Amino acid sequence: MNQSLFFTLDTHYQDTAGLIAVHVIPHAQGLALIDCGPGVTLPVVLRALAARGYTPAHVTDVLLTHIHLDHAGAAGWWAQQGARIHVHPVGAPHLLNPEKLLASAQRLYGDAMDQLWGAFLPAPSERVLIHSDDEVFAIGGQEFRALYTPGHAEHHIAYLWQAVCFSGDVGGVRAGGLNHVRLPTPPPEVHFEKWRASIARLRAADFQFIAPTHFGVYAKDAHFDLLERSLDAIVKWLETEMPGEPSQEIFRRDFGALLEALARADGYTPEQMKIVEAAGGATVMSADGIYRYWKKYRAA
Predict the structure, then answer these.
(1) Of 182, 257, 260, 248, whose CA–CA distance to 214 is shortest?
(2) Structure pTM?
(3) Tens digit of pLDDT per residue, the chain (300 long)?
(4) Domain at 3-298, CATH class
(5) Which of 142, 262, 280, 299 has the most CB within a 10 Å radius?
C-alpha cells in the first residue's frame, strides 16, 4: 500500500503519543478526516495540519465512525467551519443537539469532563450527512463505502477506502504496533455477538489494511486474528466468572487482572499498558460495559 495517499495525525491526547489518531485523506477539493478527535485536541490537530500547509478551510469532510467523545468531540467545530460531517443516522441527532450525550458523559467524568474532552459544539443540520448501510459515496473523486459495524456501539460505521478499512473502535485498540489488541467496552452498547458478526463482515470485505483510531495501520488478517483472540479470551473468562454472581466491584477487580494478564502475555511493558488503558478506556468503565452486557443479554 502506498501510504502517501493518506496520512495520520497524532492528537497527542493527554500529552501521550499513539492514543488517538486523525486519519487524513487528500482529495481533489481538499481533505477528508476519518474521526476528528475530542475538542481538547483541536489545537494540536490544527497545528499539525498547518505544518503540512493546510488550513481549516481545506477540510471539506469529516467521516465519523461513531459519536463517542474521543472520536467525534471536535465534529461540531469542523461543521461550523463548513465541513460536511458523515455519520450513522442514530448518531446524527446527537451532533445537532449534543445535550443528552454530554449529560451522560458528565455523569461518567464529573469535574474532569472539560479537561478530558473540551467543547462539543452542535453541528448545523445542513452540514450533517447520514449514510445507509453498504452505501458507496464519493468525496473529491475518492470513493468510500460505509459499513454498519455494531458491537462497540450500535451506531458504529467502518469506512472502506481503496485498500484500507478505517475501523474506529470495532477493530479494537492497539498500541506501539505490538501483537496485542484490546477491546474497548464502555457501556451502554457493548454486544459481543454483534461484534463477532461485524468482524466476520469486515474479514469478508475487500481491503488489505486496517487503520484503527487507536492507533496505527496493520495487515488485515493478522490484526483480526489478534482481535478475535482477545474477544475469545474475554468471553471464556466471563463464562467462568459470572456463574459465581460476583458483585460489580469484584467483577471490576477480576476483569482488570484479566486485561493485565492478557497484555503481559503479549509482551507489553507497564508503560505500554498505560497507553492501551488510556486509549481503550479506563478498566472500570470497560468492566462496567461488559458487566451490563452480561446482565442484559446473557443472564436474561
Answers:
(1) 182
(2) 0.92
(3) 444 589 999 999 988 888 899 999 999 999 999 999 999 999 999 999 999 999 999 999 999 999 999 999 999 999 999 999 999 999 999 999 999 889 888 887 888 888 889 999 999 999 999 999 999 999 999 999 999 999 999 999 999 999 999 999 999 998 777 788 989 998 889 999 999 999 999 999 999 999 999 999 999 999 999 999 999 999 999 999 988 889 999 999 999 999 888 888 888 777 777 776 666 567 888 999 999 999 888 776
(4) alpha beta
(5) 280
CB 189 within 8 A of CB 175: no
Place of cell 504496533: 177
C-alpha cell read off for 9: 495525525
C-alpha cell at 299: 443472564
CA distance 179 to 261: 14
Nearest to 117 by CA among 106, 126, 125: 106
C-alpha distances (whole Å) from 236 to each of 54, 67, 155, 242, 298 are 48, 30, 26, 10, 13
